[in-house]
């Protein structure tokens, strides 16, 4: 873990959403992780998470994204940090507001439960802090939507301001077809005359770029902007041949560049000037290295023109999010 980060690679972050719990909505999990419960046992996924973190850090990645609901992601990251004191400069962002309830079962009826109450925050924040300590630099509300009480609960805002006052950046992630509206509403919130939120993690990809204008405004206002789901939960990956025109066009560009469609999708996100970090959700070292390769993708300058063309084919956000919600956990 001695390689110096390059400016492009260091803009990629590693998210542990798909590798720190046995089931998730990404494709080809049986091929990537094995189909049996034993192949997805806690210690095996811990070892895989550590291997991914090692490879990412060696390549220059310094941002890691976890959450209370990502199975044992915080625990896996905590044990990796403890075992590798030389892994300097790692910035950790975590999230509260969902609880993992899948009991490490592949076929659990419910895998996570949303709760944006003050009580949930008071329960989850100490757990995150205990595991991550001073490495916890950003703490997000998980998947803020227009109906979330977290937008209007002033007691919760005061509690979050306490985290901010202690030196941890406070923010939120978004999901759903109204991301732009949520981003603008949340960034207007103030406590004691200061913006409450200064970090945004949002979905942006070639199939669903609708949050782009609001994210540009957020960055212009000084907020840190993190892109999640740049490969659309696997829809823009070599594992799938999604028939949507935007995905087909992205694969054509990838073929022209001699790259993977996941690299094109990641490079497109990196090309957005407002993106501070773009997350890789890789579950294998091969996938991670492919995502990291997007930082040096030949033809990236030309791709900036293609991004505008490709996003013109994007799905209606309501259709995109309905399709995402229908994806099975496996």
UniProtKB/TrEMBL annotation:
Signal peptide: none annotated. Residues 49-302 form the NADP-dependent oxidoreductase domain. InterPro entries: AKR2_Oxidoreductase, NAD(P)_OxRdtase_dom_sf, NADP_OxRdtase_dom. PANTHER family: D-THREO-ALDOSE 1-DEHYDROGENASE, NADP-DEPENDENT OXIDOREDUCTASE DOMAIN-CONTAINING PROTEIN. This is Aryl-alcohol dehydrogenase-like predicted oxidoreductase. It comes from Kineosporia succinea.
């Amino acid at each position: 873990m001695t390689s110096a980060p390059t400016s492009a690679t260091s803009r990629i972050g590693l998210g542990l959403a798909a590798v720190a719990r046995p089931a998730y909505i990404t494709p080809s999990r049986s091929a990537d992780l094995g189909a049996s419960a034993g192949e997805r046992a806690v210690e095996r996924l811990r070892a895989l998470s550590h291997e991914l973190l090692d490879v990412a850090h060696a390549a220059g990645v310094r941002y890691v994204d976890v959450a209370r609901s990502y199975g044992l992601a915080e625990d896996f990251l905590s044990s990796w940090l403890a075992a590798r004191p030389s892994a300097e400069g790692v910035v950790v962002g975590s999230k509260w507001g969902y609880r993992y309830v899948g009991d490490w079962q592949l076929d659990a009826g419910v895998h996570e439960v949303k709760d944006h109450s003050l009580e949930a925050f008071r329960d989850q924040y100490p757990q995150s802090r205990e595991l991550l300590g001073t490495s916890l630099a950003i703490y997000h509300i998980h998947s803020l939507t227009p109906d979330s009480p977290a937008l209007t609960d002033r007691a919760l805002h005061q509690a979050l301001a306490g985290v901010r006052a202690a030196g941890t950046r406070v923010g939120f992630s978004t999901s759903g077809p109204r991301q732009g509206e949520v981003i603008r509403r949340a960034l207007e919130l103030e406590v004691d005359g200061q913006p409450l939120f200064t970090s945004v993690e949002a979905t942006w990809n070639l199939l669903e770029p609708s949050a782009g204008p609001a994210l540009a405004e957020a960055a212009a206002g000084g907020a840190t902007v993190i892109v999640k789901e740049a490969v659309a939960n696997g829809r823009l990956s070599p594992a799938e041949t999604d028939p949507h025109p935007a995905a087909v066009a992205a694969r054509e560009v990838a073929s022209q560049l001699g790259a993977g469609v996941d690299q094109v999708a990641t490079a497109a996100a990196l090309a957005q000037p407002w993106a501070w970090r773009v997350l890789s959700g890789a579950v294998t070292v091969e996938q991670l290295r492919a995502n990291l390769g997007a930082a040096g993708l030949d033809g990236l300058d030309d791709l900036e023109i293609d991004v505008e063309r490709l996003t013109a084919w994007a799905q209606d956000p309501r259709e995109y999010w309905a399709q995402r919600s229908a994806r099975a956990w496996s």
